Amino acid sequence: MSKDPTRESYSLRDAVLEKMRATPPGPNGQGVMMPSKSEFVEGLTQEIARLKDALKPFESGEMQMAERHERGPWIDTTPKYIEELKHIIAVNEAILARIER
To answer: CA 101 to CA 97: how far, in whole Å?
Structure first.
């Protein structure tokens, strides 16, 4: 079976937090400056594209996801995994649509 491609890189939240940590303190010298709306939208757009790319090999049958309990047989969980990825994509797209209103 294959690795979970969505877990190989940072999530959008991790990317935003990393950027916040690397950003100099705000004008009052306290805290950090939040990314601009355009930076956040760009990051979310990139995350959606990454998730869609991760989904393609599973939908085409090129890759499968499976799980195994103790020493039992491998159970194909690809359909469940595809639905989970689609749900995450849909949620991110809904967030993006709301931000861009």
So the answer is: 6
